């Protein structure tokens, strides 16, 4: 299978190069999405099915649609893409030399890396039965290094606040009366496909405790279901957020912090859980995270304060 | 134990080099964001390789780092795309807006 | 209880900010002020505990490194937390002026500001390389939306540039973290040192990426291009925080890494190179500050210059240089916050900050002008200010180590600072008084004038508080003393 891997690695390098140097921005984006899918494939080959799932759902899927939608907005606003002129010849050659030296150094360093056998990861695998969750990556994310995950939810929230402040929504208007483009396919997508996607998302969150999956992948798939409904015009972006909606947005980070702080006096450490309750608490936290992630990603996609269902 | 020769090490280096090249040479903000994401993918690939080179199974800690990194990269990029939309669609609307709330 | 204080210092403001977002404009401005007060109280308790008992550690989740992440409040973290609390308190009071009334904008300001405060505290307390990456992103992604609060129309280009550089910088840093983990099998600052000191190519690359990524975030020349437009266009309270704390956090990381994980790598060539970057920042930033036509940009370029002084620690690397570099960071933070708040008052009153059209401000804006003057004394490094003590320590270190060229840099830097500051003072206050101000806003209220003044006074007072502060800092890590 080394031949397959080599071809895949070569393809990744070529796709990256073509994506960056494509004369046409649209083609650059499409190549970038293809690159994301190839990366997902290669990560599955590199014993990282969780990450392959995440890259396919978040990195290529959601980000891909977002890039294409943004490209369309730009096309409508400024079709000539005024500032897209390439750098001067000298700068480009200098950059070629610089990045070749940089990439070469990284390659030589990676292949010469003497990996130590004494690693935190080995300790994580050995302590799995204390973590309350069997799946190693989920155990790291929700227990051993849960502090990173908690702060990362803060990053997600802040990026969302930032995007809302700019007020440049992607899909703002409700699609009432716009029946000309209503096709039977959309109705099938919305009625049949979306529930399946939602189920897959929930399953992925649940599965995170045992196998590949988890709050992030599941949340991204749930957000994908929302995006599907947006594209089928069953949902639309709205300017007014209810308290409930904002509550769901911050549910993950708040549950994490509040549970951690409440248990701190008893457990002696922040984000430490009593052995009997650890599994229940982690499942509660994981589902709260998934809800917040799904909603945050969806609103990052629309760029609006809320989404609402279209009533027909 | 030392590392295993693996074609994906070269792919990681290529992603990093290409991302760096794109970041330096492009002025268009959307293209820069693409380049930054390609660079980021190179970093993630590096982490995955580091995880794989652990005796006794893939190391879950770099895997968790990649997941965290992907979510951060995507949320920051989504924010960046909102900025791009705003900055490139307001060329004419710039002056009509004396004071944003 | 004391071992829980680091957690509270992070999560009081963080949870406060999240709840502010949830509540919308309800509870303004009482809720954020209460959270700010609690945070200041918590930090003061923590700093007091560090001062009397030494470092405080908290292993999160009860998992000790290398498996888990540890919070650590040592001397360096304590003085940075203290600076953040002082500037944060002043900015919180000042912000009652522009952001005191309930509005969507005020909601966003307070939510983001409390989140930024918590993020900064998290960064200073973190003792884990990857966790530092997450906190760096937290700081960046709360800082950039704050810049946008000045009105997306004006600031969107600056914010976009800021975001691009910040993202690239942190990914470069993350590459360093990845290789470091490969080498060391750990992410804890105290455990990765030996692996990074082995002198191989991978170790060198990891160190280079860690340093390079942080340099981009710290806006050190030639990666400074994003700073002036962002700091020069943000709302006054935000500019104060960005210049005094946010870029400082990145330089703090350099000092932290150099003395702990990279201590074995302190090759003289890299150290001299970092010093040269510092000197370049001092000269370039000062000259640019002298050439600006807008008051706020003068102050912003002054930040580019002043950050350079902290880099002079690396070639000097003796305990006096350590004290001097850290104290410079503290003194600059206080003085620069005062300058930006005072500038904000000028803009609130005059409606613009074009230097040539500022005249006769000393009467209506007496307090703010006084603040500007006091803070300037520290920026120029004149006695008896905090800036003077810091530069004196750096100068002594240059003499002690026989590296006279850094002493020359320090002296020229001081003269350049005097030049750009005196230019401002001449335009704004010393020219013939005349009714040059066309559109006059209301005179800034006491709530907006006093925080700037108190910070200015503190910048001077810091000339006398060096001894207890440096005792809290606790000397150069690893030095035998």
Question: How many domains is the backbone of chain C divided into?
Answer: 3
Overall tally of domains of chain A: 2
- What is the terminal separation of chain A in angstroms? 54 Å
Shape of chain C: globular
For the largest interface, the chains and their residue counts are: A-B, 100 and 79 residues
Distance between the termini of chain C: 31 Å
Task: List the strand order in the largest sheet of chain C.
Answer: 1-2
How many helical stretches of chain A?
A: 12
Low-confidence sequence ranges of chain C: none
Query: What is the mean pLDDT of chain A?
Result: 88
Mean pLDDT of chain C: 93
- What is the structural class of chain C? mainly alpha
Taken in chain order, the helices and strands of chain C follow as HHEEHHHHHHHHHHHHHHHHHH
Estimate percent helicity of chain A. over 70%
Q: What is the alpha-carbon Rg of chain A in Å?
A: 22 Å
Beta-strand content bin of chain A: under 5%
User: Which spans of chain A have pLDDT < 50 for at least 5 consecutive residues?
Assistant: none
Helical content class of chain C = over 70%
Q: Tell me how many strands of chain C there are.
A: 2
């Amino acid at each position: 299978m080394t031949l397959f891997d080599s071809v895949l690695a070569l393809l990744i390098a070529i796709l990256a190069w073509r994506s960056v140097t494509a004369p046409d921005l649209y083609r650059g984006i499409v190549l970038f999405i293809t690159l994301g899918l190839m990366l997902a494939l290669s990560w599955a080959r590199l014993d990282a099915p969780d990450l392959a799932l995440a890259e396919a759902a978040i990195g290529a899927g959601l980000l891909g649609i977002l890039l294409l939608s943004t490209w369309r907005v730009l096309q409508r606003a400024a079709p000539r893409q005024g500032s897209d002129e390439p750098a001067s010849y000298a700068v480009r050659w200098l950059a070629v030399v610089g990045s070749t030296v940089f990439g070469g150094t990284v390659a030589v360093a990676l292949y010469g890396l003497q990996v130590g056998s004494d690693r935190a990861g080995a300790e994580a695998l050995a302590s799995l039965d204390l973590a309350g969750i069997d799946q190693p990556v989920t155990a790291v994310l929700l227990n051993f290094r849960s502090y990173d995950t908690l702060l990362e939810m803060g990053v997600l929230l802040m990026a969302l606040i930032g995007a809302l402040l700019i007020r440049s929504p992607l899909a703002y208007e409700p699609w009432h009366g716009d029946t000309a483009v209503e096709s039977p396919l959309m109705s099938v997508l919305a009625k049949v496909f979306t529930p399946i996607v939602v189920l897959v998302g929930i399953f992925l969150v649940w599965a995170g405790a045992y196998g590949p999956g988890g709050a992030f992948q599941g949340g991204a798939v749930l957000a994908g279901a929302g995006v599907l409904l947006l594209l089928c015009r069953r949902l639309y972006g709205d300017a007014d957020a209810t308290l409930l909606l904002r509550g769901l947005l911050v549910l993950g980070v708040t549950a994490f912090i509040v549970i951690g702080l409440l248990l701190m006096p008893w457990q002696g450490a922040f984000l430490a859980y009593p052995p009997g309750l650890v599994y229940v608490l982690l499942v509660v936290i994981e589902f709260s995270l998934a809800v917040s992630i799904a909603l945050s990603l969806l609103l990052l996609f629309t760029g609006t304060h809320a989404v609402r269902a279209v009533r027909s | 134990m030392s590392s295993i020769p693996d074609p994906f090490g070269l792919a990681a280096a290529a992603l990093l080099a290409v991302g760096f090249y794109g970041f330096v040479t492009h002025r268009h903000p959307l293209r820069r964001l693409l380049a930054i994401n390609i660079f980021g993918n190179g970093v993630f690939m590096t982490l995955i390789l580091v995880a794989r080179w652990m005796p006794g199974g893939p190391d879950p800690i770099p895997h968790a780092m990649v997941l965290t990194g992907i979510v951060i990269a995507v949320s920051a990029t989504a924010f960046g795309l909102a900025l791009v939309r705003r900055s490139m669609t307001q060329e004419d609307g710039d002056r009509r807006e004396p004071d944003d709330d | 209880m004391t071992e829980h204080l680091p957690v509270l210092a992070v999560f009081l403001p963080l949870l406060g900010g999240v709840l502010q977002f949830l509540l919308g404009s309800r509870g303004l401005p009482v809720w954020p002020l209460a959270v700010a007060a609690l945070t200041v109280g918590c930090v003061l308790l923590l700093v007091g505990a560090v001062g009397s008992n030494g470092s405080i550690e908290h292993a999160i989740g009860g998992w000790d490194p290398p498996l888990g992440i540890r919070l650590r409040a040592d001397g360096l973290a304590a003085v940075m937390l203290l600076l953040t609390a002082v500037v944060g308190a002043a900015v919180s009071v000042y912000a009652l002026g522009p952001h005191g009334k309930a509005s969507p904008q005020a909601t966003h300001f307070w939510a983001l500001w409390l989140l930024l405060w918590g993020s900064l505290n998290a960064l200073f307390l973190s003792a884990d390389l990857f966790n530092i990456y997450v906190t760096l992103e937290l700081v960046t992604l709360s800082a950039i939306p704050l810049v946008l609060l000045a009105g997306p129309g004006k600031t969107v280009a600056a914010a976009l540039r800021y975001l691009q550089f910040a993202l690239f910088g942190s990914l470069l840093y993350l590459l360093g973290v990845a290789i470091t983990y490969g080498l060391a099998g750990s992410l804890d600052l105290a455990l990765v040192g030996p692996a990074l000191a082995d002198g191989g190519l991978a170790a060198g690359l990891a160190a280079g990426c860690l340093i390079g990524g942080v340099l981009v975030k710290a806006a050190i020349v030639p990666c400074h291009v994003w700073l002036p437009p962002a700091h020069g266009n943000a709302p006054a309270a935000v500019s104060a925080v960005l210049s005094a704390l946010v870029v400082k956090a990145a330089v703090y990381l350099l000092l932290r890494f150099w003395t702990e994980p990279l201590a074995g790598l302190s090759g003289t060539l890299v150290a001299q190179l970092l010093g040269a970057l510092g000197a370049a920042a001092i000269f370039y930033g000062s000259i640019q500050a002298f050439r600006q036509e807008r008051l706020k940009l003068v102050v912003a370029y002054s930040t580019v210059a002043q950050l350079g002084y902290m880099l002079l620690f690396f070639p000097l690397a003796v305990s006096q240089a350590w004290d001097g570099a850290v104290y410079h960071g503290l003194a600059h933070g206080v003085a620069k916050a005062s300058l930006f708040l005072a500038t904000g008052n000028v803009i609130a009153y005059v409606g613009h900050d074009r230097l040539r059209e500022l005249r006769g401000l000393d009467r209506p804006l007496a307090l703010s002008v006084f603040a500007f003057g006091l803070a300037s004394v520290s920026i120029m490094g004149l006695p008896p200010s905090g800036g003077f003590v810091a530069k004196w320590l750096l100068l002594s270190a240059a003499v002690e180590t026989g590296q006279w060229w850094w002493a020359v840099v320090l002296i020229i830097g001081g003269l350049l600072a005097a030049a750009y500051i005196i230019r401002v003072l001449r335009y704004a206050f010393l020219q013939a008084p005349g009714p040059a101000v066309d559109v006059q806003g209301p005179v800034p209220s006491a709530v907006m004038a006093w925080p700037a003044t108190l910070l200015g006074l503190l910048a001077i007072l810091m000339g006398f508080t060096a001894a207890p502060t440096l005792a809290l800092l606790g000397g150069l890590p690893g030095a035998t003393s």
